[in-house]
Structure formats: C-alpha cells, structure tokens
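Render this sequence as a predicted structure.
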Amino acid sequence: LFLSSDLGGTSTATSAVRSYYRATSFLANQLKLIFKTCCPEVFELYEKAFEAGVWFTEEDPGPFLGRAVLWKLQVGLHRDKGDVGPSIAFPFGSYEGGEMVVPQLHAKLAYRPRDIIILLSSKLWHQVLDWRAGEGIPQHGLTPGRGSQVFFMPKRSLEILQDKPPYWGVDTAYG
C-alpha cells in the first residue's frame, strides 16, 4: 500500500486532498451506487478491501481505493496494468473531440461530460482520441480544456487487503 504523492510533503497537500474527497463525496456516492448495481460481485470484493484500507474514513464512501484526476493530458493507447477489475472513468470540461477508443472491442465511444464508462482497464487497451479546447467557462473560473477522473482498485492493494478486517489500515498504520 502506498499513499499518493499528492498526500506527501506538507500538511497543506494532505488537507487539500481531504478537501477534494469531501467536495466529491456526493459524486463518489453516486458512482458507488452505479457500480454496485452494474457489478455486484466485484463491488463486494472491492468494498471489503476498501473497508480494510480506507485512508479517509469519513470523507470517502468507497469502494475504490484509487482515484486519478487528469487535466489537459492527452493519453495514448494503454492498459492500466497496476489495476484490477473494472474501473469507472468520466470526462469533464469544455472541449471538442476526445472519444474513447477500445480497439479489442472495435469500439469508438462518445466520451463527453456527464458520460460514465465502466471498463476493464487493466485488460482492455484504451485511448482517448485527440481533443481541442472549447469555450471557456468564466463563471467558474475555468480555462477551457478536457479533464477526467478515474476511480479504480489497485491490484496490489486488493491482494494485501482482501483478508483484512475493517479499518485494518488505520488501526495498524497499514501493517
């Protein structure tokens, strides 16, 4: 188990990450319900590991132990080899283009803000096609561009945590 580099270094960084979890808890709860409905068996597996290894016990509803936030990053064709099972990804921002391609499925999917993709990202090659910045959103202070969030389960974390009791990580300083 390891902490994100965003959590290290300063108390300000740790506070900012905790604030992010608090600010996105409604979203995380909605994704949790979608995932539980679409993937009930995997949800149970993730949830057990999550309860053992949760970092922020009050702010994070689970069941994903990993989150990535990407901003204006063009990502090429890849698999997420360090992940296990399905992940949930969704884009946000103001942009044109940026469809999701999954070559093994011969699929090119619309991938616009408010779209959600549940994908076996460790097994399936995937790529977001080129995108172009759209109109700015001055009322929110955002510059135009494309961002995305990915909720996932790190393979190694699941292996370590699957037989541990709830709050094992917090109670034992993660071992």
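Summary. The chain has a mean pLDDT of 90. Helices lie at 11-23, 25-38, 40-53, 155-161, 168-172.
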